[in-house]
């Protein structure tokens, strides 16, 4: 490989001209011929048996050039980038200048590189840390959640169904007297008040007793996902088979023994309060850290290639899709469910992507300016920690993640510590929260619509 030239054509954009020697390119052409020879048909010869000279005369000398170029170009490009001392942040746009067995390969590669940035005034940043104290009300709420998690389900036969109960029902829906697809279910467990079914359905189950058969009259929303049902009035024939309710355990010493390592409720309460305080303290620290980093970004100077933001968006979209797959959904299904185009979906990540790219560049610059170092012992400790998190051997983690990458991440974390240690942080107690006024039901519904749907939340079933 020979780097013929390296020219900056725009800010952060370079054009490289790279040569591959004739003997190296010729060997790649020979390799491509051996790989494809058996597939080639020439009149008068059995398939794959024609001499190479005949094949090249019939199809042209360049028949195997594409495979040869694809074989040698990646390594030649990487060597040229290294020789030019560039750090690419984009895939190259490649153009073949010439290719022959006599003269070898010449190609141009246009690429964006990591920008040169500067950060000023990152020492002495002023920030406010809000000091929160765990309250008795928060402890009570956490204990109630523990009760919910340890509740048992019982069958209710001495009262009518109420909000919060699980109603086991059969149902079948009709529009204009005709049953419609997807409108029938048997033994379905419906949590009343959950909003799982279309508006008005669950409210009409409330008040009925086990064994009741009744009609539920509803109107499908105008923007219902099944267009043939949108805005239509429907009647559901419903039979209530069973009513289930949660029975919460008593908050006492026995409860504490069952759900924790403590013998008394008082001990459990103290532990709950301790953990809540630790969580509040961590949240306060994170808030300060975010404020400091935001301030650093404001003092970042430099022109950042847009491809860096797009690359980060790519990563965020992939991460989002992995989470969807864990719930049994893919991105195409999610976009169809939400009615979004991929381009507009990607835009929702852009602001966060820009912030993350800028943060990383700023912190890396501070690592350089302050000569922040990470020793090998710290890297080994991080590998060990990662191995425990991933449940694999440390050597396997080392195969997947390079030591340089780990060292860079650790150095960036140390840069955050440096900023914090050199900041002027004022502590203030959190203001007492006023009791929030009761929300109207409509507001609750509006808030619910803003939530991201999970894969197990199908569109309204009835």
From TrEMBL:
* One Pfam family hit: Trigger_C
Q: Does the UniProt entry include the keyword Cell inner membrane?
A: no
Q: Tell me where it resides.
A: Cytoplasm
InterPro entries attached to this UniProt entry: PPIase_dom_sf, PPIase_FKBP_dom, Trig_fac, Trigger_fac_C, Trigger_fac_C_sf, Trigger_fac_ribosome-bd_bac, Trigger_fac_ribosome-bd_sf, Trigger_fact/SurA_dom_sf
- Report which gene this protein is encoded by: tig
Q: Write out the GO MF terms.
A: peptidyl-prolyl cis-trans isomerase activity; protein folding chaperone; ribosome binding
Instruction: Give the species.
Output: Neobittarella massiliensis (ex Bilen et al. 2018)
Q: Where is the PPIase FKBP-type domain?
A: 164-244
According to UniProt, the name of this protein is Trigger factor
Q: Where is the composition biased (Basic residues)?
A: 431-447
Q: Where is this region: Disordered?
A: 429-462
């Amino acid at each position: 490989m020979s780097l013929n030239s390296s020219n900056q054509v725009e800010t952060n954009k370079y054009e490289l001209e790279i040569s591959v020697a004739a003997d190296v390119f010729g060997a790649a052409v020979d390799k491509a011929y051996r790989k494809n020879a058996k597939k080639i048909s020439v009149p008068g010869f059995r398939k794959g048996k024609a001499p190479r000279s005949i094949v090249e005369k019939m199809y042209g000398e360049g028949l195997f050039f594409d495979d040869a170029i694809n074989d040698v170009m990646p390594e030649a490009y990487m060597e040229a980038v290294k020789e030019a001392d560039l750090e690419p942040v984009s895939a190259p746009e490649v153009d073949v200048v010439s290719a022959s067995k006599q003269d070898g390969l010449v190609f141009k590669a246009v690429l964006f590189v990591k920008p040169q940035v500067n950060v000023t005034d990152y020492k002495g940043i002023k920030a406010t840390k809000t000091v929160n104290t765990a309250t008795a009300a928060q402890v009570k709420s956490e204990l109630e959640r523990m009760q919910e998690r340890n509740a048992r389900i019982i069958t209710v036969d001495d009262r009518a169904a109420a909000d919060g109960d699980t109603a086991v029902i059969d149902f079948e829906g009709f529009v204009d007297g005709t049953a419609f697809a997807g409108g029938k279910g048997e033994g379905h467990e419906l949590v009343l008040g959950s909003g799982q079914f279309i508006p008005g359905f669950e409210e009409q189950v409330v008040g009925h007793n086990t064994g009741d058969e009744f009609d539920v009259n509803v109107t499908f929303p105008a923007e219902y996902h099944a267009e043939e049902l949108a805005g239509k009035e429907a009647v559901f024939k419903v039979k209530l088979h069973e009513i289930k309710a949660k029975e919460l355990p008593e908050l006492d010493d026995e409860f504490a023994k069952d759900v924790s390592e403590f013998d008394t409720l008082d001990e459990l309460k103290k532990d709950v309060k301790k953990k809540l305080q630790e969580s509040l303290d961590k949240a306060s620290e994170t808030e300060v850290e975010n404020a400091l980093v935001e301030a650093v970004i404001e003092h970042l100077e430099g022109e950042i290639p847009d491809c860096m933001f797009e690359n980060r968006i790519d990563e965020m979209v992939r991460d989002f899709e992995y989470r969807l797959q864990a719930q049994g959904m893919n991105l195409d299904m999610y976009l169809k469910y939400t009615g979004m185009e991929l381009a507009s979906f990607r835009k929702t990540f852009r602001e966060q992507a820009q912030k993350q790219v800028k943060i990383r560049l700023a912190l890396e610059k501070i690592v350089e300016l302050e000569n922040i170092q990470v020793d090998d012992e710290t890297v080994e400790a991080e590998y060990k920690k990662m191995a425990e998190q991933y449940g694999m051997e440390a050597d396997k983690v080392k195969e997947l993640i390079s030591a340089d990458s780990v060292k860079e991440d650790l150095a960036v974390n140390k840069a955050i510590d440096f900023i914090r240690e050199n900041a002027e942080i004022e502590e203030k107690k959190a203001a007492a929260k006023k009791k929030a006024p009761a929300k109207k039901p409509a507001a609750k519904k509006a808030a619910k619509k803003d939530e991201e749907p999970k894969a197990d939340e199908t569109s309204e079933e009835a």
